[in-house]
Every structure is written in structure tokens, then in C-alpha cells.
Amino acid sequence: MGVFGINLVIRRVQLRHSPVNKFVILFIFTGMLTLLNLFDAPNARLIDFGTKAAQLLLVTAVFFIISSLPLSEQDLKNVLHVWFLVAVVVAAYAVYQLLARLYDWPFAYLTLSNPSTGASGIQTGRRFDFTLGAAQAGRTLETFQYVQVSSFFREPTWLGSYLLSALILFGVLILNHKGHLVLFKPTRLVLTLSNKSRLNLLKLSRLNWLFLGILLVGLLLPVALGPYVSLVITLGLMYILRRFYPQRITKLILLLFVLLFFGGLLLSALGIDFFKVASARISGLFAGVIHGSEVGTSYPVRLERSLAALKVWASYPILGVGLNNTHYYTPAEITLTNNGWARLLSDQGLLGFGAMVLVLWTLLWGLRNSLKAVKLSSWWYFLIIGLSFVLISDIVDTFITFNWTHPVRWFTLAVANLVYIRTRVEFSPGVPEAMNTIGHSSDTSLSRSGQGQTL
User: Fold this and answer.
1) Cα separation of 206 and 88, whole Å?
2) Pick from 244, 264, 296: which residue ends a domain?
3) Strand 198-203 and strand 188-192: pairing?
4) 37, 78, 173, 221: which could form a disulfide with 178 (CB 3.0–4.6 Å)?
5) What CA–CA distance (Å, rounded) separates 354 from 274?
6) Sequence-ordered list of residues with C-beta below 8 angstroms from that of 223, at least 6 positions apart, any chain
7) Considering only CA atoms, which of 20, 77, 81 is closest in space to residue 391?
């Protein structure tokens, strides 16, 4: 990807055409335009703006590079394979991390964060103390602790949000019997005992289900309610939109409950009462929504931060206050905003908000059109379905966690745009290939490379 980026800079290759690109450029422009609010600002505000502007330019540059990579169909499958395995490693470490903190095993903290941050990060070592029941004479209240794991991230919610995209995409592929095309194929691992004796150990495609289960466990263990809410809403939309067979969603939900039941029993045997923690957190969420209670959940704090950001936006509705400058306009005790949509409005105003809505709408509409062009039984069909719901889950999840300058968000946008461009060239009649070239002559052969393959 780095070599491709250099070739792009020296104009040996060109960006592929996509209607999404112009709205991404508009989004970048609206971010840079907010500098108009900072001409007489102190140096600290300009530094904060510059930091976020550099991040925006970097993630969007990666977006354009990934979107324009000259990948064959097999190359694309390899990229998805690596994505899935990395997500599994992140989830597996979250499981190990929970046990490592319980039994003081090594490598309990491996947070990939700013070097200036302590080894445990800001939120990585967060503990919750729950008290069950009401105080009564002669009765001891039941209290227990739970450590929220965050794997390589600094915040448990970030872990859940990261795993959510991989879980949805590869869950769609595996449940529709297409997982072997990008993951493990249905071959058997055989142990040869002698010339006449062989032992069939494992059908490798079953590892796909095992790893999907690890992703689910990794999503559930942090007991981060934001990703829970995003997952439930996304599954509900799958039912409503009827783009995914309802019985297969039911199968995924059953897998979720089976893992919850047996995983909860296993954790209970190890002295970790996951069910009790999860129920306390969920009941705390409802109490926070209904009564404003802060017991067991951060909902009231997150709501306060979101409302503060929206109040800032109301004062600067068009351009916002500038990238990474919202906290200069909120009360002193509010130093960050968890709601990515509210942060976008306060930082970049209606212009930035509108540009991002156009990016998402154009991409989702393009993927919808691609569905009409590919075969219903092909892996492309279910890949497009999976990516569409990944984007929907990102839209929902941004209300809770990552904002629209985070690399995780732009990676999923880039992969979705890459698939849209690829299917548009290969399967949409009447689309001139010259309008979709990456290079001067190489892309025509690349864009046709998958046409003779069985779908």
C-alpha cells in the first residue's frame, strides 16, 4: 500500500472513479475551512486543530489508497482473511486479559496507545464496584468487582466497536456458507499414524465457527453497553430490511445465547460472575435513561457531554468551532465528547455533517445498486450485504464511540468503497472501464481478472 501511495503521488497511477470520492474531498474541505474560526485563537487551539487536521488528512489518504488498490478477486479475499484473523487475535487477547488480571499472569497490559499514557492506559484498568440490594437491619449487602477488559485498546467500548464490524461482516459470510471463500476452506486436517492409518482431526472450515464465537466472546466480555446497543439495532434492521434471511439471523442470535450461557457458567466456575455484572450494567442503563441514575453505567455522563457539544454547535451552526476545539467551549468539567455525531456538528458544523451524510448515503446507495448486478448466490452478494450492515452499525455506533476522524471508521469506508468500485466495473453493464482506471493500461486487465471466475 505504501508503494502504491508513492506511485499515486508521482502520478504513475490514478485514483479510481467513485461518486463517493467527491464527497470525501468535500468533507476534508469543510474540516480545513473551520480554520477560519481560529485566526485570532491562542496557540493551544491552533495546535489542537493541526493535530486533528493531520489525522483527517492521513485517514482520508489511506481511504483513497485502499479504494484504488489494483486487487484481483483473490487479493481482496486475502485482505478480508487478514482482517478477520487480526480481529480474532484482538478478541482472544481480551479473553486472556480477563484471566491474566484475575490470576496475575504476565502480559495483562499491552495497550497500544500514546507513549505519554501510562502502561495501563486511561480506561484499560477500570473496575466497577456493584452493590446489590437495599440496606436493611442485620443484612449484609452483596458487593462484587469486575474488571472491564479492553485488549490492545485503551477503552473497553473501543474494543467492542472494533470487533463489531468484523463480527457483522464475517457473520454474514459464514452464516451464508461463504466463509470458506475468505477464511478456512472445508478441508480436513489429517494426522498420519502409519502407511495405512490416518486420523481425521478437524474439518478446517469449522475453525470459522470457532473464530466467530471468539469474536462474539470478545465483544461481550468488556460489558461495554454501547456495542451491545449497536449490535441489537443492527440485527433488528437486518430483520426489517429483509436483505438477510431471518432464520440465519435467528441462528446468529442462538449462537450468541449459547455462548452467553456456557461462557457465563465457565466464568462463574473461575470466580467471575459475568451474568451478575451484565445484568447490573444493563439495569443501570435503563435506570440512567429513565431516572438519570449513574449506578453501573456512564450513560448520564455521555448524555451530558453530547448535549454540551450540541449546545456549542447551536452557537456556531454552519462551520462549527474548528477541528478538535469543542472542549474550549464546553464547561471545564467536560473535556471530551463520546458522541461522534455531536462532535462532528460542533467541530465542523452543518457543512461537515452534511458532507459525511452524503459520503455514507452515496456509498450505501452504490452498494444497493451493486446488489442488483451480482448473482444472488454469489459471494459478492453476501459481501455487499455484510459491508452495508457494517456501515449501518458504524452510523449507530458513532453515537457512542469512535468519531469520523478515527482510522477504524475510514478503514471500513475504504473497504466498502473498494468493493463498490470493483463490482461496478465488473458487473454493471454500460459503465465505461476507462472511467474506472487505476493506471494507464494495467487496470483494464485487472478489472477483468475476476470475470472468468466462478462466483
Assistant:
1) 15
2) 296
3) antiparallel
4) 173
5) 41
6) 146, 148, 156, 274, 277, 278, 281
7) 20
3-state SS class at 189: strand
How far is 321 from 326, CA to CA, in rounded Å? 6
Give per-residue pLDDT as tens, 192-246: 545 544 444 456 667 888 888 899 889 988 888 888 889 889 888 887 776 556 6
101 and 12 in a common domain: no
In this prediction, residue 336 carries a pLDDT of: 80
β-pair partners for 145: 129
Find the domain containing 27 and state its range.
1-68+298-455
Per-residue pLDDT at 455 exceeds 60: no
Pinpoint the alpha helices (H) of 274-397. Answer: 274-291, 299-315, 340-373, 379-397
129 backbone dihedrals φ, ψ, rounded to 5°:
-110, 120
Other Cβ atoms less than 10 A from the Cβ of 105: the count is: 11
**400 and 264 within one domain:** no
Q: What is the pLDDT of residue 452?
A: 33
Residues 102 and 226 in one domain: yes
Cell reading at 56: 483527517
